[in-house]
Amino acid sequence: MLELMVMLYKTILYFIWDSFEYILFLLIAILLLFNRKKIAYYIFLIVLVCFGGFRGGLGNDFVNYYKWYYIKINDKFFEIGYVGIMNLFAYLNLSIYHIQFVFFTGTLIFISLAIRKFTINYKFASLYYLVFPYFFLYSFILMRQYIAMAIVFWSFQFLLKNKPFQYIIAILIGSLFHYTCLLAGFLVYFIFFLSKIISKKQIIFFLLLSIPFAFINWFHFFGFLFEGTKYELYFLEKNMIQVNYIKLILFNIEALFIFYFYNELINFNPNNKFFIFLTLFAFILANIFASVNYLVRFSLYFRFFEIIILADITHFNRKRIYVVLLITLYGLSYFFNVLLSDYKSTGIHTKLVPYQNILFKK
User: Can you state the angle between helices 38-48 and 96-118, rounded to 10 degrees?
Assistant: First the structure.
């Protein structure tokens, strides 16, 4: 027992040491974000680009992207937009790190434009984008899909302006980088329409109804469904995960937290009704498909609207300082839990910790 505790202590100690760059980066970024000078926000974005855009080989998928770029395998399975960029960069004799920089910067541009479009509380929204790992940190891993997610998030403004043609064009552009953008774009439009005709009580009912599905293991069902396709690799036995019920409980507590401010949110900004329904749809998907990691990942398309909701809740709350501390600490605890899980994981893949930056590569 003592040896186990000593081993755990050493692991955490080494993890903190190896995570120093992340801690320093977050501290600098947050201080910049809440500097009152207008230019500080643009410096904040530049810091994010320097940290994320110039990262080294980090994350589970880096080895695969490296092989796809230099060995030229599986081109026929990729979306034409990504293949075209790979071929262009290869022709220009550029490296995989240049592709990482372009995709990360493009993703950040779309997200920052959407944040400024959807809420006046863009600093709070940017803070929550930073500290919740399934936004900023996951963009290190899901390179192609994340720029598609960012485009879906940004393109929602066209639905609000009743410009369906522009919305369709944006979704088609996003699908050039990841095919799931087509399904996500359709579902966003469907939820946008549905949110006009269903009530708060009905969406609560659907959320509660989705919870029992978290106890159903869909993994083998989808493995059978996608057998013989390029997606069957996602449903190999080695990719099966244990459902994290603690995380699911926290997700649903957050949903109740949002519901508590439902009326205030809509009074503050009528468009928040759409953002609430899209966020809760993400929670419903996460509940139903909790046993299938790759389908939970799909729910992230709709979770970007969560940062708008949380930012507005922070803004109009009388105890603003306590709310922002609560949400930030909740996000950071999840952020470092993701890093720690990756740090302790075994297997052949490039990890997120220790951090690497090509600008300081020896």
Answer: 150
